[in-house]
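Intended use. Records such as the Lon proteolytic domain-containing protein entry shown here are meant for training and evaluating sequence-to-structure methods. They are not intended to support clinical decisions.
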Amino acid sequence: MSAPSRRLRTLAVCAAPVVALLAVAAFVPLPFAIAQPGLTADVLGSDKNKPVISISGAEARRTSGQLRMTTIVATGPQTEVSLGDVVDGWFRTDRAVMPHDAVYPAGQSDKQIEQHNLAEMAKSQEAAVAAALGYLHRSPKDVKVELRLADVGGPSAGLLFALGVIDKLNGNGSGGDLTGGRTIAGTGTIEPDGSVGAVGGVSLKTQAAKRDGATVFLVPKGECTDAQAELPKGMQLVPVTELSDAVASLKSLAAGQKVPSC
């Protein structure tokens, strides 16, 4: 047998296990989750015929414009993700392939994960109210705020909730709307002291925001690079580290002034 023939046979023999492995992998569930742009919701509006933000003890303003919190949707914790799903996700700009354990805590049932996410949302809402009232120097003993948004979990709407409370109570501080009549979207956790934290999936969230009419996206400053990865055309990114940053930037936008950018 000639040397070229021996090399071909060697390659064929070596390739056979690889082909077999790929064939098996195509049907074996892999430890990944596939995420895509999810719903957005206007925190200044209503959800299931009830206002997202309800205020008592102070007069709530009538607002124009929108403040849209953004989400991503991932395959469920028990959903089997195949090699084909992973490859497809890698080559699509509206999908993201994430390690399963980075999305869902290991060893927890679907019900436990749902309860955890709802608890995180409740904590986020409490922090948002505290941050907003603190920014406005209002006492929670005098002003009561209730936030409700069904079927959404996790802490990443905190910044938008806080901005919504500020707009409902104070607007831009000069009689106008904090949004300036625009559709503003964004994401970010919030602490009671007003500090804004990072979240995941920002490149998918900017796509959801664009789909639902937003032209400005507020993003935690440390995630600017991620947000720019698949940034939709015409979307303006505004980085924030504190609630006060976000308020100042929205006021400047409404006044036609320059704002920070990623």
